[in-house]
Design a protein that fits this description.
There is one protein chain. The protein is α/β, with parallel strands linked by helices. The chain has a single domain (3-243), classed as Arginase, Chain A (3-Layer(aba) Sandwich), CATH 3.40.800. The protein contains 7 helices and 10 strands. The strands form 2 sheets. It has an 8-stranded parallel sheet with strand order 4-1-5-10-9-6-7-8, sandwiched between helices. Strands 2-3 form a two-stranded antiparallel ribbon.
Length: 245
């Protein structure tokens, strides 16, 4: 399995130590153009898509959830129409009309489902994933617009980490935002969400999805600040070694 390191949080290059991976990981680091954040993200995600399309079951590790759009697009460029299993403490189903923070990572899943296609799907060549082929797992920190959307009947199904139930049919892209793990176990997260599952429970759920033999790409988001101390950095290194292998 090829591990692809994308050392970016949105369109900002991260220090190398932000993603503590084995030296064999392949780094994707395109020169981003001047322009809007959407133009810069399109360039980054296009580079990810081009590389993912050439790999067999790659694992993509980055600093935020938006890179999952490039992973999805790459799988599609390889001729596969995957469903999506999305582990996240947050819904990531805001739109530009509902977000109050303006944080673009909070739109990531909704963008994969086709929101703001003129900004994302069109320029990237991404075919939106149908909601009936999408599963949101572990979301517990939801804003009111996200709650309303997820209850609308035209949204992905939601599940707890320990009770995945039936997965979408066909090939799958597995996305894991590491903040799905309880914030008390993983210090330094940008958007910590208490009351979550342990890393062991998350690993078990991930293995359940992988055991189907239908996962065609894994996307891991590490939305954390610089590690507060060497022990935290060691914990991150160990966690990624267990997940990205």
């Amino acid at each position: 399995m090829t591990i692809l390191r994308v050392p970016f949080h949105q369109d900002r290059r991260l220090p190398d130590e932000s993603l503590p991976l084995d030296a064999a990981a392949v780094t994707i680091e395109p020169a981003l153009p001047d322009g809007t954040v959407w133009e810069r993200l399109t360039a980054l995600h296009t580079a990810v898509a081009e590389r993912v399309a050439r790999e067999v079951v790659p694992t993509v590790v980055s600093g935020d959830c938006l890179v999952a759009l490039g992973t999805l697009a790459g799988v599609q460029r390889a001729g596969i129409r995957p469903g999506l299993v999305w582990f996240d403490a947050h819904g990531d189903v805001h739109t530009l009309d509902t977000t109050t923070s303006g944080y673009l990572g909070g739109l990531a899943l909704r963008l994969a489902l086709g929101a703001h296609a003129d900004l994302v799907a069109g320029p990237l060549g991404l075919r939106p994933v149908p909601v009936e082929h999408t599963l949101l797992v572990g979301a517990r920190d939801l804003d009111r617009p996200e709650v309303d959307y997820l209850a609308s009947g035209n949204a992905p199904a939601t599940r707890a980490v320990g009770d995945l139930g039936e997965l979408p049919d066909g090939p799958l892209v597995l996305h894991v935002d590491l903040d799905v793990i309880d914030a008390g176990e993983l210090p330094g997260l940008r958007f910590p969400a208490p009351g979550g599952p342990s890393s062991g429970a998350v690993r078990a759920a991930i293995q359940h999805v992988l055991s189907t033999g239908r996962v065609v790409a894994v996307n891991i988001a590490c939305p954390w600040h610089e590690a507060p101390d060497p022990a935290a950095q060691a914990a991150r290194t160990n966690l990624l070694a267990n997940l990205a292998s």
